[in-house]
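Posting this for the archive.
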Amino acid sequence: MPKDDRDEEGLRRTYDVVVCGTGLVQAIVSAALARAGLSVLHCDGSDYYGEMDSTWNPEIIQEKIKEKKSSAELLAEVSCKSSHIDKGFIAMNPKGSESNLQWHSENKVDSFGLDVGILVDTPFGKGTVVELPKSFDESIVVALEKWVLANGKRSLVYFRIPHEYRHNSFSSQVLEELLFQTQGVQSLRTAKAKRILNDHRISLDATPAFVLASGRAVSGMLASNVADYLEFRSAEGLFWLEGGDLSKVPCSKNDVFGTKLLAPMDKRRLMKFIQLAMDYATQTSSDEERQQQVSLETANAMENSPDAPTSTLETVESEVQSLNERHLNHGRSLARPQNKVVSTEALSILKQCMDDGMAFDTFLEKVHKLSPKLQAIVRYAIAWEREVSSVSLAEGMENLKLHLQAVGRFGNTAFIFPLYGSGELPQAFCRSAAVFGATFLLRRAAVGIKVSDGNGVTGALISEDNSSECKMIECKTIIASEASFSLERTTRSCKRILRRISVLSGRVIRSDDTDCHITTIPPKTVGNSHTIHCVTLDHTLQVVHHGCTVMHLTTTVECDKGQETDDEILSEASRMIIEASGSQLDEVYQVCFSHCFEPTGFFSVSDVPEGLHLCHHSGQALTVDNAFAQAESIFSKICPGKDFLKLSEDFDVQIKERATENNINDDEKNMLESALDIVRKTKENKNEQTRG
C-alpha cells in the first residue's frame, strides 16, 4: 500500500469496517471479517479486551468503582472533541457496553477476629484459643497442639498486647490485628483470607458463560482454528436448589434412574418425556440434513443437466420409522437401543401441539402429566427457562434439543468452560482477527460516527492517544454495541442483569474432583421473579487460589423508572447455597453490580444509518451461542454469500503468493533437507577415505 494511504500513526485512512468495542460479538465478527479479506480497524477505550464479556480482578473492579465521571460529563467531552464536525455526527458513549454499569456493593474480609475455639498460628506452632481477654490488660490463652504435658494436657501460652500498641477501641478484629503485629498470632481463617486476596491469579468474569458442547460456538471455533488458542474443562454437574437442599439434576437415563430427587412415578414420566425429546431432536436433525442433501443434489443436477428429471430426489421418506443416534454418549453408550422403532404417534401429537401454539408448561402438565416439581425442573434446569410465564412449546423443545444433543460429548454434562475464565473467548477471537490483518487500538474509544446527508455511514471518530483531540477514520461500515448510544443512564422501566461474585475459602460442591457446576434456583424461591443461575469454579479452572471457589450468581430484575436495583435477592441466594453445601466456607471477597441489556431505544428501526450494525448483550444466557448467532447475522449482512469464520479463497491465494514472494518455506522441510545433506556428505567422506 502506498505511504500516502496511511497517516502518521501508520493507520489506513480508509477501512472497510470499524468495530467499536471488544465484546464477544464484536470480536467474533472482527475475526470473521478479517478472514474474509476485509480491512478491519478494531478500537476499545479500555486497556483490556472484552467489555462486559471480559475478566476482571479486584484491583480493576476498585478502579471502576472509583470512576466518578457522569454521563453528562462524558457527553460534554464528546461534544468538545467533535466540535470541528458541523453536522451529521452521532455521539457515542466512550464506555461502550459498560455505559449502563451500576455498582451496588463491594467488600473484602481479611480479618475474621478471634473467638474461643478458633484455630490460630503462633510462633510456637498451631493452637486453639481457650480464653479471650475482656480488655487489653488481660491475656489471650492458646492451647498448643504439639506441646503435651506429662499429665496429658496441652501446654498453654499467654499473649498480651504491649502498652504502646493499645487502641481506644477494643474488638476481636482489633485484638487479632494487634496480636499479629506484636506477637505473630493470627487465626488460620484470616491467614487464608489474606493469601487468597493477595493472589494475582483471581479471575472474575463480568459475564460467566459456558460453551455448549455441540453448538454454534464449537463449530465456529473449529472452523476458525480459534480452538487452538483455548483450553476447556467440562462442567461436572447440574444442581437444583430447593428447600435448602442441593440435588443433582437428571439429564440422561442413568441420572434419572439414580436420582433421589424424584419419586418413582416422576422418574418414569420424566424418562418417557426425555425419550420423546431425544426422538424429536434426532428427527429434526435428520430432516435438516436431508433437506441440505436434497438442495445440494438438486443444485448439482441442475448444473450438470438443467433438463434432468429430479424424481430421484423425491424418494426420501417423509416419515422416520427408526432413529439412530448420531454420537456415543459419555461412557461410549447409545442413548437408545439401535434401530428401535419410534412411536410416531407421540411425535405427531407433539407437532400438533406446536402448530396449535401451545405453551411449554401446558404441554408438560396436560399431555405428559408431570408434577409441578418436575415441571419446574424440566423448565428451568433442563430447558433453560428464566421467567414464571412459560415460553412456547416450539422454543422449549428447541432448547431441550440443544441441551440433550450436547450431553456426554466431552463429559458428564452438555457444557464446557474455558480455563482462566470465559473472558478468554473475546481475546482469542481478537487474536485471530489480528493474525489475518485486523488493526487493534486499545485505550482509543470510538466517540461518534459521521453520517452523510443520505443517512449513510461515512466515518468513525476515534479518540487520540493521551490527547483531547479526535481522529476521523473513513469507512462505510461500523459495528457497535447499542448501549454505546446511551449517553444518559436509563430512567425508563427496563430489565437489568444483576450479578454477584463471591470468592470463597473452600468448595461448594465436594462430590466431584472439580468444582465446576451450575446450580439453578427457580423463581419465587428468595423473592426472585426470574431464575437464579449459580456457577461455581475452583482452582482447576485457573481462576482462583488453590482450595478456593469463585461463585457467580446471576438473575434478571425488572426496575421501574427511578427505582434502585435490589441486590438483597442474590445475598440471600448466596447464603442459602453456602448453607446447603455443608462446608465451612468464608466469603473473603464479594462484589455486586448490574447492567441494562435491553435495547436503549435510541434508534428506531428506520433511523439506523445505513452501514451501522448494532449488537447487544445476550442477557441471562448460560452459553455463548447467542453471541455467535448475532455475529453470524451481522457478518451475513456485510458479506452476503460468504462462509462465516472461514478463510476466503482470495485471501488464501494471497497468503500463498506472499509466502512464495518472501521465500517462506516449511521449517520441517528445511530441517529434513539439512539432515539429509549432512548424511550425504558423511557418506561421501567415508567413501573417499575407503578409496584412499
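Residues 84 and 633 are 35 Å apart (CA to CA). Residues 310-322 have pLDDT under 50 and may be disordered.
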